[in-house]
Amino acid sequence: MATELNVPVHTLKTWLKRPPAGVAPSAAASGLPPSLPARQWSGAERLLALHESHGLSGEALHAWCREKGLFEHQLTAWREAFVSSAAPETAQERRETKAELKTLQGKHEVLQRELRRKERALAEAAALLVLQKKFQALLGDED
Fold first, then answer.
1. Where in this chain does the entry annotate a coiled-coil region (predicted)?
2. Which of residues 39 and 50 earns the better pLDDT score?
3. C-alpha to C-alpha distance for 136 and 125, rounded to whole angstroms
4. Are 43 and 79 in contact (CB under 8 A)?
């Protein structure tokens, strides 16, 4: 004795659209923004994209990039950026960087002082020119 179920068609369609239990859709599970351009992705999203595309090569990589709206050169640039920023800095390099920073700060202060001095001299020269023109205008009236 079989029991017959009367399930509306739209309910069946809704059930088919849903992913099976325990399987998340790829775009939502990956956390990659589908509508945001890749150049506006955060560092975490870029790292996730690098992680997802790590084992891919050739046509599989190209297909994955098309699906996500990326270019292979973007992944390469992101990978290089993460690798270069993760390089550990030694104590010697930090000391050298601090010394360079102090040297540059000293040069900056010297240049700022020189700029202020030149600005004052320029303002004085402009004032003298204005006074000279006024004086000539007064003498021109007496002639």
1. 94-128
2. 50
3. 16
4. no
The answer to whether 39 touches 49, Cβ cutoff 8 Å, is no
Closest C-alpha to 82, from 108, 52, 117, 43 = 43
Q: Which residue has the higher pLDDT, 111 or 41?
A: 111
Contact status, residue 95 vs residue 87, Cβ threshold 8 Å: no
Angle at 107 between CA 84 and CA 121, to 5 degrees: 140
CB 7 within 8 A of CB 25: no
Distances (CA, A) of 128 to 1, 78, 122, 125, 133: 114, 58, 10, 5, 9
- b/e 55-82 (16+ beta carbons within 10 angstroms → b): eeeeeebeebbeebebeeebbeebbeee
Residues with Cβ within 8 Å of residue 101, at least 6 apart in sequence: none
Measure the CA–CA gap between 49 and 34, rounded to whole angstroms.
12
Q: What is the pLDDT of residue 73?
A: 85
Higher pLDDT, 21 or 42: 42
Are 68 and 49 in contact, with CB atoms under 8 Å apart? yes
Cα angle 79-84-86, degrees, rounded to a multiple of 5: 95
